Amino acid sequence: MTETLSVRALNRATLARQMLLAREAVPVAEAVGRLCGMQAQEPKPPFLGLWTRLEGFQASDLHSALHDRSLVRATMMRGTLHLMTGADYTAFRTTMQPMLDGALRVLGDRAKGLDLQKVVPAARALLEEGPLTFNEVRALLQEHFPDVNDRALGYAVRLCVPLVMVPTQDRWGFPRTSQFTLADTWLGTGPAADAAIDELMLQYLAAYGPASAVDAQTWSGLASGGEALERLRPGLRVFADDKGRELFDLPDAPRPREDAAAPARFLPEFDSLVLAHGDRRRVIADEHRPMLTTKNLRVRAVFLWDGFARGIWETEYKRKVATLRMRPFEALPQAALDELTAEGEALLRFLEPDAKEAVVTVEA
User: Which residue pairs, CB below 8 angstroms and at least 24 apart, start in 62-67?
Assistant: First the structure.
């Protein structure tokens, strides 16, 4: 008989893999590999996401990994920017291409005259001469293809040419307008010739399991995720959730007791944990999920207490005072507020080391 896992059991299993039951003392690149990448739509969130997961994390640790090229920031899952290990980017970039090709459909009429067989090699030739911002890429390509929409040209290059962003000494690793370069130039090797969807699904389960086929497809954007899990079925554990849906997992992956202690934690904007499943009740209740995303599709920062998202948060730095404002979804017990305040103050000291005062507030 198939074992059923409660929402709390799924929560604790996922938090264990996400290094959110206890901070772990592992190198930054190893941590990002274990997480199977971190969404990095903006450069700052991965710094906060690693701080909340790793013991003794310093911003310089991530800077070093970016500059020694063990980590890269590049377009991957769901066509969004992710922080990945160089090895995982090389291994899985080709796997992502069918999904990235499909994303071109959003261009609609703007794709008129767009010929990838001509645009891709032209873009590669430009980038072989050195890193470029996308404003520069679009302008230069427009000279070659004057009748094609410049935004369509840029979008096609972003999706169809394997590129990585060039890190700088900016505080969060990248300037507002970053340069891109060819992945094979930066890493010394190009993406793997063949897709590796089965290997990617195993890494996904290690980081986010137990999970359903829909969960895996939601995280990756790949329609072939379910087929891969079927192929892998003989070597996996199979569970059911409280609604009877099938969940796959690695046999030896951690699945703590559902009453395992889960400390207060602050997740940054765009954290992959809140985006990695179709059914997100293991992290955030359905009634609170609409609060997760803004009208312009920003994914808000959330705080966890007893393992679940209990509200959103934001910070402000003014006149040497660092303030973290929590907006709970519903009233929290004093014990939760005390634990969250202590964790929030520690986060502010990381974010604003020059602040004379760190203040955590709770707003309705």
Answer: 62/28, 62/173, 63/167, 63/169, 63/173, 64/28, 65/27, 65/28, 65/29, 65/32, 66/167, 66/173, 67/167
Q: In CATH, what number is assigned to the domain containing residue 358? A: 3.30.300
Please check whether residue 289 lies inside any domain of the structure: no
Tokens 């980017």 — which residue?
89
Shared-domain flag, residues 66 and 170: yes
Residue range 185-201, pLDDT digits in tens: 999 999 999 999 999 99
Pairing of strands 321-328, 357-362: parallel
**Segments forming the whole domain that contains residue 322:** 301-362
Write down the pLDDT at residue 295.
85
Q: End of a domain among 223, 251, 283?
A: 283
Residue 353 lies in a domain: yes
**Angstrom distance (rounded) from CA 152 to CA 40:** 22
Count how many Cα atoms sit within 13 Å of the Cα of residue 135 in the half-sphere of its side chain: 3
Mark whether 191 and 315 lie in a shared domain.
no
Q: Which two tokens stand for residue 293?
A: 């995303």
Q: Tell which of 253, 283, 313 closes a domain.
A: 283
- The secondary structure of 300-364 as a DSSP string is --EEEETTEEEEEEEEEEETTEEEEEEEESS---HHHHHHHHHHHHHHHHHH-TT-SEEEEEE--
> Does one domain contain both 214 and 141?
yes
Residue 109 maps to a domain: yes
Residues 132 and 180: beta-carbon distance below 8 Å: yes
H or E stretch covering 271: none
Chain segment 142-189, per-residue pLDDT in tens: 999 999 999 999 999 999 999 999 999 999 999 999 999 999 999 999
Number of domains in the chain: 2
Q: How far apart are CA 76 and CA 90, in angstroms?
A: 11
φ/ψ of residue 137, rounded to 5: -60, -45
Structural tokens at position 284: 């955030």
For residue 309, the cross-strand partners are 304
What is the model's pLDDT at position 364? 76
Residues in the chain: 364
Q: Is 188 in contact with 46 (CB distance < 8 Å)?
A: no
Helix, strand, coil shares, percent, the chain, to 5: 45, 20, 35
